[in-house]
Each structure stands twice: as structure tokens, then as C-alpha cells.
Specification:
By secondary structure, the chain is α/β, with parallel strands linked by helices. It is 53% helix and 12% strand. It is globular and about 60 Å long.
Length: 365
């Protein structure tokens, strides 16, 4: 099987970059559908408007309805056709960005992605997660290409809730360990081939950046400061993790996250928070050296990422609940089977229990 690496056409990151969106956009078309929430427009609409003031690009705003659903995609496709738009710009969180990618794909148009938070590694990917109008997961829409451009304004990200960026670090924590597992097993990645050396190197840089800069970045964000550590972590959460997960592959951590979705008491936790605990569980499955495991658990504790089932919201831990999570994680079509050894619900159940015990130990509970 071929080794494959995919990536967005251009990645731009820096404080104040949203103010240059118009000048970037005019390289892709003359009339843009800009998808944003009403509250998002109140916060940064003046910046976006100002960026287009001295350009020849005409802007058509439309407020996002809240779900990346087929109904919303079809509604916006009709707007694109009616207004004669020749590019799509998504500004906001994950569901807006996924909707913008899908609308652009169905209309054969370029798409510019402008995240206002750094909570996941989705902005760079050639993927949209489709939900029903009621918000229930429906399907993955795999796209033939990544976004034409991803623009991260770190000044805007700095003003977002700190917990979101920390959750992004939890999501990014899994990148290297899952890519390493896929490389060892020869698994097919999200890019459709084997892992490249470049993807592994980016995934390792992602991990090293988190370990070195993560706590510094959290403290700076709590002070409302956009520092070099914040810039490095935003890049790790978005670009390094985005390229690393898509071209490096997914394995245990994300499958275990998916397993936890069967427990309603965990639904209030962010994606990256559950992935962080899933990463610890994967490392227990791999039986990594004790000092390495301690370093990662301590790092999670310093950041406030969950290291126990209780912190994930599981009030009463029972064998039945943990086995239900383990069985869901081991679903036939999930990525736990990309691990370089056989996994079963029983071994995953044991790893979850052990990960919880280690977390409680290091917390001093």
C-alpha cells in the first residue's frame, strides 16, 4: 500500500490575521458566502467586514442554524446558487466549519476555514461530520480535498474560554501515540494509505510541543495573554494534530472516546477531554514504562484534563458500565483494531479500570 500525506492548501496563523481575511479571500473568488453564528457576528463581524473593505470581494452573510445536517447543507447550497457565490468561508466552531466544507464540496467551490477556537484538530481535515437536525450523529462525509485555506487568528482564540484550548490539547495528546500504533500495525490512515515519515515527525513534534508549552500556554491564556507558548500550542492543536491524525491515523484513544459516548453521564465533557483519558487507557494497553505514564498523567493533572472516571462524570463505577464502554470501543468498524496487537472488550475494560486507578493514585485519592 502507498504512503499518503494530505493537508490544506495554505495554513495561516497569527494575532490579528482575521483582519486580513478579505485580502486572502480575493485570491479564490469574487463573491463569498460567509457562514457564521449571530453571536459570532456580534463579536467579530466588524473585523470581518473591515477585512473586505478595500477588496473587490462581495460578501453574503448567512447565520448558521446550529447543526451540520443535510437540511442545513441543502439550505445553504440553495443560497450559494441564488446569490451566485463562488467561494465559501466558515467562521466559528467545528460544526460551522464542517458545514462550510460540505457546502463548498457539493457546489465545487473553494473553501476557507477560520476557527475561532482551538479545541479540536478538525479544521485542516478533509472530513465533515454530519448530524440529524436534532443533533444525533448520522455519518462521516469524506471529502476529496482538504480546505483551500485555514486561518487561525490567535488573538481571537486567546479570548475564547481557556477550557476549550485545554480540551484541544487533550485531543492533540493522542496524535503521536495513535500514529505510532498505526505505523507499527501497518494500518490504513484517514488519508487512505500507510503512515509517512513526515506524518510521524509532525505527530512527534505535536507531542513534544504539548509537553513543553502546554502548562505555560494555559497559564498565559488564564491571564488573557497571547504569548509564544500560546502560539505554539494553537499550532499543535490545529495544524500538527490535524495533519498527524489524518495522515498518521487513529487507533485506541479515539475509539475509547467513542466508547464513552454510550454513557450519558459523560456527555457534558468535551471531545478532547474524553480523548485525553482514552490516550491514557491506550498507553495502559500498550504497557508503556511507568515513568513515561507518570509524566503524561501529571501533565494532564496540571492542565485540568480528566484522569479518572469520576472526573469524566461517571458517578458510580460498575463493571457493567465499563464493559459497555469497552464493547462500544471495540466495534468492528472502529479504530481500536489499528493497534498492533489484538484487543478485546475484556482487555480494554481492564485498561480503563487500571487507567482510573493510576489517575486516582497520582491525584492522591
Amino acid at each position: 500500500m502507498a504512503k499518503i500525506l494530505i493537508s490544506p492548501g495554505k495554513y495561516v496563523q497569527g494575532a490579528g490575521e482575521m483582519g486580513k481575511l478579505g485580502s486572502y479571500a480575493e485570491k479564490y473568488g469574487k463573491k463569498a458566502l460567509v457562514l457564521i453564528t449571530a453571536s459570532g457576528y456580534k463579536r467579530i463581524g466588524a473585523i470581518v467586514d473591515g477585512s473586505f473593505a478595500d477588496t473587490a470581494v462581495e460578501v453574503v452573510y448567512d447565520y448558521f442554524n446550529g447543526e451540520c445536517s443535510k437540511t442545513e447543507i441543502n439550505r445553504l447550497t440553495a443560497v450559494v446558487k441564488e446569490k451566485g457565490c463562488d467561494m465559501v468561508i466558515g467562521i466559528g466552531g467545528g460544526k460551522i466549519l464542517d458545514t462550510a466544507k460540505a457546502v463548498a464540496y457539493y457546489n465545487g467551490l473553494p473553501v476557507l476555514i477560520c476557527p475561532t477556537i482551538a479545541s479540536t484538530d478538525a479544521p485542516c481535515s478533509a472530513l465533515s461530520v454530519i448530524y440529524t437536525d436534532e443533533g444525533v450523529f448520522e455519518e462521516y462525509l469524506f471529502l476529496p480535498a482538504n480546505p483551500n485555506m485555514v486561518l487561525m487568528d490567535t488573538e481571537i482564540v486567546t479570548k475564547s474560554p481557556v477550557r476549550l484550548t485545554v480540551a484541544g490539547m487533550g485531543d492533540a495528546l493522542a496524535t503521536y501515540f495513535e500514529a505510532r500504533a498505526c505505523q507499527a500495525s501497518g494500518a490504513t490512515t484517514c488519508a487512505g494509505g500507510n503512515v509517512t515519515s513526515a506524518a510521524i515527525a509532525l505527530a512527534k513534534l505535536c507531542f513534544d510541543t504539548l509537553m513543553e508549552e502546554g502548562v505555560k500556554a494555559k497559564l498565559a491564556l488564564e491571564a488573557g495573554a497571547c504569548t509564544p507558548a500560546v502560539e505554539k500550542v494553537v499550532e499543535a492543536n490545529t495544524l500538527l494534530s490535524g495533519l498527524g491524525f489524518e495522515s498518521g491515523g487513529l487507533a485506541g484513544a479515539h475509539a475509547i472516546h467513542n466508547g464513552f459516548t454510550v454513557l450519558e453521564e459523560c456527555h457534558h465533557m468535551y471531545h478532547g477531554e474524553k480523548v485525553a483519558f482514552g490516550t491514557i487507557t491506550q498507553l495502559v494497553l500498550e504497557n508503556i514504562p511507568a515513568d513515561e505514564l507518570e509524566e503524561i498523567i501529571d501533565w494532564c493533572i496540571e492542565l485540568g484534563l480528566p484522569v479518572t472516571l469520576g472526573q469524566l462524570g461517571v458517578k458510580e463505577v460498575t463493571d457493567e458500565k465499563i464493559m459497555a464502554v469497552a464493547k462500544a470501543a471495540c466495534a468492528e468498524n472502529d479504530t481500536l483494531h489499528n493497534m498492533p496487537f489484538e484487543v478485546t472488550p475484556e482487555t480494554v475494560c481492564a485498561a480503563i479500570k487500571a487507567a482510573d486507578a493510576y489517575g486516582r493514585y497520582f491525584l492522591g485519592e
